[in-house]
Design a protein that fits this description.
The strands form four sheets. A three-stranded antiparallel beta sheet has the order 3-9-8, with no helix packed on it. It has a three-stranded antiparallel beta sheet with strand order 4-6-5. The longest helix is centred in the middle third of the chain and has 10 residues, at 51-60. The chain has helices at residues 43-48, 51-60; strands at residues 6-10, 16-20, 29-32, 39-42, 62-64, 69-72, 81-82, 88-91, 101-104, 115-116. Strand 1 (6-10) and strand 2 form a beta hairpin. The chain has a single domain, classed as Beta Complex (Beta-clip-like), CATH 2.170.270. Helices cover 12% and strands 28% of the residues.
């Protein structure tokens, strides 16, 4: 769930993007994962899905090497676009848990697009080879 207000708007990077609707201070936790609400899919289940379903999950979800499962978020975090120079990063405050937080790496202005480096959490997204 988000700890800040966000909006989905057209992005200059790709399709629609996720934008801060308020200023964010560096180091602030912007988002906390919620495994109870997110869809968690094993590799076996993922492999049995149709190509269209796999494409959707790989477009809007992420494969975690921590638990070797696909994670499809229940909320707007799926609209966070990739950047090699992101303003957000993953944080695992409890190393014994797979629960992740996303924190601001610098101050973020209201209206600024929220960006992550997808390589932090997903090594399977083939589109990064083209970036």
């Amino acid at each position: 769930m988000f700890n800040i207000n966000v909006k989905i708007k057209p992005s200059t990077i790709h399709g629609n993007g996720l934008f801060a609707d308020e200023p964010v201070k560096a180091g602030s936790t912007v988002y906390q994962g919620n495994a109870e609400l997110d869809l968690i899919i094993s590799e076996e289940t993922f492999s049995a899905l149709t190509t269209r379903e796999q494409q959707f999950i790989s477009q809007y979800g992420a494969h975690s090497s921590l638990d070797d499962q696909w994670h499809l978020p229940h909320d707007h975090i799926r609209f966070c676009n990739h950047s090699n120079n992101p303003n957000l990063k993953l944080s695992y405050p409890d190393k014994n848990s797979h629960s992740c937080h996303i924190v601001a790496v610098r101050d973020i202005a209201a209206g600024e697009e929220l960006l992550q480096d997808y390589r932090e959490f997903e090594e399977l997204r083939e589109c990064l080879q083209d970036l």
